[in-house]
Amino acid sequence: MNLPCVLLTRPAGRNETLSAALAAQGFSSLLMPALSLEAQNLSEEQWQDPKDFDLVLFVSSSAVNFYFAALQARGQRWPDKVLLAAVGFATAACLRAQPGVSPDAVLHPENTDSLQDSEALWAVLEPRLAQFERVLIVRGHSGREWLGQQLENHGIQVQRLAIYQRSPAQWSTEQGRQIRDSLQAGRLAVLLSSSQSADAVFANVQSLGLLDVWAQCAYVVIHPRIEEHLQSLLLQAGIAAPPMVKRCTPDDDDIVAALMAVLSRD
């Protein structure tokens, strides 16, 4: 019997709910984060206090968790009248779960058809620009500059705080064997949640001698930019015939549905 399997590559702690939902539908999972995340050790001079800003913008749930952990370590709570912004639904939900945060203070794209990216958030922020003089963007050590540049182009002071470090995870030989065995037992789909994670997965595929597996997998991506980057990596690997790639929103239910769709297709 061929058993479909999913390779879940989101950061540690972000794959378990997906795995449980897939298991309930009869799909197995391999949890192999593509990136390792580590909090940045910030000095008091580097720390950015939220009370000094009109808006604090978070690019991911990881940014939320690392920033609020640092905030609580300093014995602080979220200040009144400081708005928060999130690129997507998951990040917004993470913000609303933080102590002291009013749900009404969280701005994010509400359209379920939105790509949940910087451009979608800009459409939410642009009508409110008169409210903002100083904005803090909380992110990893690198990221897209587009949204910050849009704010700066409208005369807003923007500070960027790298609250965590991303580094490629190195998969073991045993993990490589699990991937190959899963493909030999049935279909294998790979979830890619960022271009950087796609690079990290590709590096592991190369180092573990799994390029033949890479060519046979199906893929689910959460943004057109990730799909474009994946296609460039496939061409770089000499894979001219593109495998199945399905795009969905970053919403967990949508991801599960997309993974089930690519694994169930004849």
Automatic annotation (TrEMBL):
Q: What does this protein do?
A: Catalyzes cyclization of the linear tetrapyrrole, hydroxymethylbilane, to the macrocyclic uroporphyrinogen III.
Query: Which family is annotated?
Result: Belongs to the uroporphyrinogen-III synthase family.
Enumerate the spans annotated as Tetrapyrrole biosynthesis uroporphyrinogen III synthase domain.
17-240
Protein name from the UniProt record: Uroporphyrinogen-III synthase
User: What GO terms describe the biological role, i.e. biological process, of this protein?
Assistant: protoporphyrinogen IX biosynthetic process; uroporphyrinogen III biosynthetic process
Q: What is the lineage of its organism?
A: Bacteria, Pseudomonadati, Pseudomonadota, Betaproteobacteria, Burkholderiales
UniProt keywords (A-Z) are: Lyase, Porphyrin biosynthesis
Quote the EC number: 4.2.1.75
Keyword hit for Acyltransferase: no
What Gene Ontology molecular-function terms does this entry list? uroporphyrinogen-III synthase activity
Per the record, the pathway is:
Porphyrin-containing compound metabolism; protoporphyrin-IX biosynthesis; coproporphyrinogen-III from 5-aminolevulinate: step 3/4
The enzyme class is lyase
Q: Which reaction equations make up its catalytic activity?
A: hydroxymethylbilane = uroporphyrinogen III + H2O
Q: Extract the Pfam families matched here.
A: HEM4
